[in-house]
Amino acid sequence: MCGIAGIIYRDGEHDVGRDLTRMLQSMKHRGPDSTGFALYGPVGPQIVVRYTLADANDPRGMHFDERMVGNRREVSSRLRSAGAVIEELEQETAYADRAVLTYDGDLKTLTDLLEDIQGCEVLSLGHSLEIVKDLGDAEAVCSQYGLETFRGTHAIGHARMATESEVDISGAHPYWAYPFPDVAVVHNGQLTNYFQWRRRLERSGHRFQSECDSEIIAVYVAERMTEGYTLEEAMRQSLEELDGVFTYMCVTADALGVAKDEMAAKPLVLYESDQLVAVASEGTAIETLTDGDTYDPYEGEVMVWQR
Amino acid sequence: MAAVGERAVSYDARGLAEPNAVAPETAVVDGQTAELDAADLSIRQINLELRRLVYGLGVTDVVVRNPGSKHSLGVGILTRCRIRFEGSLGYFACGLLDGPEVHITGRVGWAACENMMSGVVVIEGNAGSQTGAALRGGDLVVKGRAGARSGIDQKGGTIITMGSVGAMTGFMMQRGRQVICGDAGPGLGDSMYDGTIYVAGKVKALGIDCVPGEWTDADTEFIERKFRIYDLGSPPSFDKFVCGKKLYNYDSLEPAERKLVL
């Protein structure tokens, strides 16, 4: 199961946080366990990093609060030692933070430095991308992180029904394509050559946060793009190289793409107008935005829209 | 969300189950006709209300407003009546019907009219995958396009699609007819046992053991009749596809019986 949704506006910034919350909430029946958002705000010179210091369902005894205080102190000192200037630092929840940095060094080094702290996981990093994911349905996560007022041009999201790994934040989508900034993926389906690709990508130096097959797609596409392929070309190649049944969405700082496997085994409904493009697992999600005509793209299709 | 009956919900950790739902009795009934606003009702409430109207009150014409692409609406209605959905439906819309005439003004999700026994369903918009899956009888008309595996395992009846259809349309179909006015995706009629598929547009690739069939006057009569009934204009020219029967390499004897014969 799982429900995925994406929206891209072609006429500037809108309340994408609110729109995506509505879309995902209407598909709660496809996955009520956890919900994730990958939102693209205005592109700035600074770097936005979202990270967790513990998972949402970690036991709260055992000096949890002291651990969080210690971890936060460690994060700040490591950021400074890496040469980053902390412009803003917000505590979103007891265990999740958002920081805005002025930093021009290597992003992989910075990420590795943070993730070396016990329990710390970088959810997203980039000039525009912000990934928010937590347990519960879309409205719960939206109100917890104040996404109702998030303005941006495009976003993707995921309502998860956990089948093969735990219900926790590290198993929740969307996945950031570590260490490539501003690339994220949501996926509905199963990849059957996951381990093959995981070994290949690990050999070229990538780390994986989870044991979820969807994370492969994010890194795969981002790596192809650094080789010089466009998003669309990278996604077309993925249809040949990734096996299994899937519909996935990939977003970059200025584009949103969807791809469907050659069996058309997983659902996707598409609405397209001059103002916006909305894609989702079910028509009911698109009805929360518009009454316009929708259709199901066919097998093996790759479509990319620029903001 | 779901208003439940007098008894409390016993266990509903995810807030999705609807045990003990009862018909909300919110439809406005006027003699043989009724109108139901489905906006704030759950799936079970809408279906229970439809049953109350057509079985309990003997209503023959029902209009359902604001169905909101909910799943499994209008399923399992086994009596003659007319139902009009003003809007779009989700998955498994109008499945297991026996008798009704249904008109849907919007689109439908996956597996619309799955296992319909008899009746008529007309969909003004597009349809998702598995449209008319395991259809047993009746007519299903999609005015837009349909997704992959249209009429998979079809066992009777007719599916008319005015637009194109996706991959593996008519996969393992056993009887019945599909009329496709647009293009067909790869694997058309793959492993079909019997039945007929008419395609007006291009076929991307035929499936295994699906071959062009010989056109007869009965085909012309059938297509003209269906186009006339549903007011679909003048029919385009079609190619006909049937089963090549190359995969018919089984016999009707059980292994134990075969031993006796030999």
TrEMBL record, chain B:
<dbReference type="InterPro" id="IPR036485">
    <property type="entry name" value="Glu_synth_asu_C_sf"/>
</dbReference>
<protein>
    <submittedName>
        <fullName>Glutamate synthase [NADPH] putative GlxC chain</fullName>
        <ecNumber>1.4.1.13</ecNumber>
    </submittedName>
</protein>
<keyword id="KW-0560">Oxidoreductase</keyword>
<dbReference type="GO" id="GO:0004355">
    <property type="term" value="F:glutamate synthase (NADPH) activity"/>
</dbReference>
